[in-house]
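Ticket #4471: structure export looks truncated?
Reporter: QA, pipeline team
Priority: medium

Steps to reproduce: submit the single chain below to the structure queue and open the exported record.
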Amino acid sequence: MISATDFHEGMVFEDDGRILQVISYQHHRKSQARAKVGAKMRDLDSGSIIERAYPSDTKFREVEVRKKDFQYLYAEGETLHFMDVESYEQETLQKGKLGVTAKFLVENMDVIGVFFDGKFRTVEMPANIVTTVEWAEPGVKGDSVSNLTKMARTANGIELKVPLFITEGTKIKVDTRTGEYIERAQ
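Actual output as written to the record:
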């Protein structure tokens, strides 16, 4: 058993039959009141984000987490197909379980498959991906002040702000955690 004071980012636990993963947390204590732990969590079954505050002495069941190397194969409607790189067994997930991170998947991408209590539940993405700009707003000649950006869309549908010098067909690196432009890829 673990308590709310043991929370850390990425930790997985069970609360009222739901498997939750901590995204962020903060300890709160107001004068004479009992300490509380406020947490922002992802429900790993539905993919939804939940915010709750727990008394610091609340106990939870810790969930056994196992990770394996997987490769993303393809999407078929709302179903995503992955392959275990050691055994070549295939697993599937619904796009909704990954939320917005599903947009970052590129065929044949290496990811980490995450199992909770022996069941394939989600994947961990690499920190950044390289993708091609499919559409970009035109940059206006004479706009040379630093840090000016324009909107662009990548081949896999990610909309983000990029510097003015980025044009259609340019390969760029995108941070999968924030969805922001990092740099032009080589």
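Status: closed, not a bug. The export was complete when the record was re-opened. Leaving a note from the reviewer for reference: The first strand starts at residue 2 and ends at 3.
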